[in-house]
Every structure is written in structure tokens, then in C-alpha cells.
Amino acid sequence: MSTPDLPSADTIVKTASAYARDLLERVLTTFVQSFIAGIVVTQPLNGPMWYAAGAGGVGAALSLVKGIAARWWGVVNSASLAKGV
User: What is the span of the domain harbouring residue 34?
Assistant: First the structure.
């Protein structure tokens, strides 16, 4: 019986770390982009800034869900759905 060729613990930690950094960057940039878009929409319409913050939060939450789903279906190190990223 042969034993499976398992990756080292260092490789697993580096892979998880790379994925976490990638996902965090995507979630934060999505929040900032959604928040800015919310400001652009709420300012001319005299809407409260909380609507802009809410839009940013919803965008960031959706980005987080997409990034977690991408890990299940795509590359382990990336939060992208694109193959080879």
C-alpha cells in the first residue's frame, strides 16, 4: 500500500493565507466601490448617507459569499471564479 502524497503544513498555511488575503482585498474594495457608488446616487437625491453605507455593506457581503463559493469551485488559492487566477 502506498501512502498519498500530501502537501506539507507550510504549503497548506501559505495557501490559506494567500486565499484569505485575496478574499479580504476583494471584499474591502467591493465595499469601497459600493459605498462611493451609493454616495454618487444619494447626494443628488438627498438620501441619507446610511443608504450608501448599506449599499456598500450589501455589496461586500455578496463579494464575500462569491469569494467563498469560488474557492469550492475554482482555484484553492484564489477568490476568483476565473480559471488560472
Answer: 26-73
CA 63 remoteness from chain centre: 5
82 in Cβ contact with 24 (< 8 Å)? no
pTM: 0.61
**Does residue 33 form part of some domain?**
yes
In a domain, 46, yes or no: yes
Number of domains in the chain: 1
pLDDT digits (tens, 9 = 90+) for 18-57: 788 888 888 888 888 888 888 887 777 787 878 778 888 8
Host H or E run for residue 14: helix 9-42
Cα separation of 11 and 9, whole Å? 5
Contact at 8 Å (CB) between 19 and 85?
Answer: no
